Amino acid sequence: MKKLFYILIACFFLASCDDFDEDINVNPNRPSDATAMQLIGNSQLSLPGLSSSPNGEFLAQYLSETQYVNASLYPVTSTSFYSLYQGPLMNLEYVLTRPELVKEKDGPAANQLAVAKIMKAYYFWHITDRWGDVPFAEALQGTENLTPKYDTQEAIYNAMFALLKEANSQIVAGSISGDIMYNGDMEKWRKLANTLRMLMALRLSEVNAAKAQEEFNQALSAGIMASNADNFIFKHQANADNQNYWYGQIDPNGLGREWWALSQTLVENMKPYNDPRLPVYGNPTRATGEYVGLPSGETKDMDTEKYSLLGNAIWKQDAPVYLVTYAEALFAKAEAAKRGWISGGETEAEANYTMAIRQSMAQWVGNAAAADAFLMEPGIAYTPANGLEQIATQRWVHLFMHGYEAWAEWRRTGYPDNLIAPNGVNVPTRQIYVETEKFNNTENYNEAVQRQFGGDDGLYGKLWWDK
Length: 467
Known about the structure:
4% strand; mainly alpha; 6 strands; Serine Threonine Protein Phosphatase 5, Tetratricopeptide repeat; two-stranded antiparallel sheet; single chain
C-alpha cells in the first residue's frame, strides 16, 4: 500500500496516470490498483495533520514556545500546501475519477463516492482558509495540467457546498468497509457533511450574510450532528505506528521534552472562571502548583518550572484528535440564533450556547455536569449584550489544539480579543504561498496574488470572507 501511494504521487508530477497499469510490474498475487476504500483509508491518515501542528497552535495562541521561540514570532516565511494535494487529495481525486476502483465488496458505490466528496471538501476548506485562492477546478490532473489556475475563494466555497450537497443526497442504505473514522456508518458521514456545510456557511457571515443564512439553514434541515457520538475524531493508538503527533514530539523514548506551555492568552480566558477544562489542557506549574500561562513569543524568562506545560492527557500516545464536534455545531447554532438566521432569538441563542459548553465539558472532562458551576460564573453566564463575544470566545476555548480552525474563527469574529502581538508582531491573517509557485506556476500565481492582495504575497492580506 505504501509503495502504491508513492506511485500515485509520482503520477501527479511525472506521467499520466492513464497509463498507470502499464507503467508498473503486475504481481499476479496482488491487485494492480488500490481500491477506492484503500485510497480513502490512506487519505484519512492525513487528517490529524489538519489539527496537530505547532504552527496552528501559535496562530491561535493556544501554546507558547519554551525552546525555539522564533517559530512562534510569526516569521515571514512561505508554507507549502503541496503535501495535501499530492497525498490525500490526489487519492480522493483518483477515487472520484476512476469508477473501476470502486469495488462492490466494500459497500455501495454511492456511499464510497459520497465519503470521497465529503473529505475532498474538508481538505479544501482547510487549504483555502489558510492561503486564500488556491488551485481547485484545474488541480489534481497530473501532467495534463502542471500549472493549474487559482480559483477564487468564493468559487471554492461554492464548489465545496455543492460537493457536500451531492454527498448528502447520494448516500444510500448500507455501510462501507475500510473506513477508519466512522467504521462505515453512513448516517454519521451524512451528519458530518451537513455539519461541515453549516460551519462553512457561518464563515461567510461578514461577506455574504444572505448566502450564509441560506446554506446554513439548508444544512441544518438536512440533519447535522446530534450528540458527541457523532464527533469526527481521529483515534490514535498506544503504538509507534499510529501515535499522537504531540507524543512523538514531547516524549520520544522517554526524554520528556518541555517545549510547549499553555499561552498566557489561554490561561487568562480560563483560570478566572474556574474552567474545569484547564486541568485537562495543561499541568499546574511545578514551582507553585498554580496554572500560569507563558506569554506568546516570550524570549527572556522561559523557565519551564514557572509555567503550565501542555497537559499529559493532550499529548499521551493514544490521545484522540477532535476535528469536527457536536459542541462546535451547537456554538454555530447559538450564533445563528443571535444573528436572527434561525428562529428563537435570544432564548435559542442562550440554550445552544449553554448546551455547547455542556457538551464541550463532556468531551474534554468526561462529565457535562462539570459545566453547572462554570455556567454561573459572571462573564460566562449568557447575556444578550455580550452574546456574540461569549459564543465566539467559548468556541475558541473549546477548539483547543485545533489551531487552524480556531485561528480562522478568530479572524472572522475578532474574539477572543486578548490575543497579543509577540515582540510587536501581529497575528497573521493568512499564510504565504509556497515559494516554488513563483517559478513553477508563475502566471497563475501572480494573477492570484494581484487579484487578492494587490501583488503582495504576505502574512497580512485579507481573505475573501475576512472583512
